[in-house]
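Ticket opened by: R.M.
Priority: normal
Category: complex prediction / small molecule

The reporter submitted a protein together with FO1 and asked that the result be attached to this ticket for the collaborator who will pick it up next week. Submitted input follows.
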Amino acid sequence: MSGGHVLALCGGVGGAKLAAGLAAILPPDQLTIIVNTGDDFEHVGLSISPDIDTVLYTLSGLNDEKRGWGLADETWQALAMLGRLGEPDWFKLGDRDLATHIARTHRLRSGESLSAVTASLARALGIAPAIAPMTDDPVRTEIETADGRVLPFQTYFVAEQCKPVARAIRYAGAQTAKPSPAFLHALQRADLGAVIICPSNPYLSVDPLLALPGVREKLIALRVPRVAVSPIVAGRAIKGPLAKLMAELGVGADVVAIARHYRSLIDCLVIDHADASDAPNIAAEGVRAVPAPAIMRTHADRVALARAALAAASG
Ligand code: FO1
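Result attached by the on-call engineer:
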């Protein structure tokens, strides 16, 4: 990759960290970050876009490092009052975070698209690279469970803490949703230099983007390097329920399974040095393995992993 535009596909916490690393080293006009909206939902009358907010807060440095989601120095007075008034309080909306949801809901109701709202929130928070939702249309990730229920994503993830056994995952609305203008533009730009699939949960955070009409085909047809960064290190998910989910879906929780999952879409998989011995098995899937330190604890780790992903794209 020599100086072309970079398209980063991103979900929540892990994806946002790599996106922040990419934003730290690329000129702002050379990066487009497209974010999963399958986690979005309406809650207490508000339009909530958790992954977009995680990316906005991480890139503006306002995020809570320990939780991964939400804002640092948060308070919870409104949530306590909501509970007292008999409203649901299982989804933790902080006082400052509420302002984001109120602003988004207000602007969507006055007719702005989610793309326009996201761009204006990013601008207000001082974020320079383009951040856009995967689509302006509603797509809702749902989990089919072993006990026969179909759970909306946040019910599964937050209310039931990923405890139900998953049998299948679906992305309601994806078949008829249109990729956002920024997503389509990035996929078609003549100066596109690389696609980076961030270390987000493939099933919950990246597959919703790939389920949008035409996206998978466009990624397959691209003649630029496509690099994924593994969200699995040494058989464990860096964060969240990925390893449990992979076991329930009948795939081993390892880097080879990640390579197999993305094999038609990527040229390279960045893996942690801990998984370097799996490089030949990844090569057997037709994917080049590039070992690098893949766990991001500090800002320097994010920048180093972003550099490794861009170097992998350069071949
Ligand atoms: N995740 C949780 O595990 N518990 C919560 O109470 C919670 C609240 C929340 C509020 C705003 C927001 O933007 C994100 C929030 N998240 C919470 C994260 C959210 O569930 C994400 O969908 C997941 O982190 C997956 O990316």
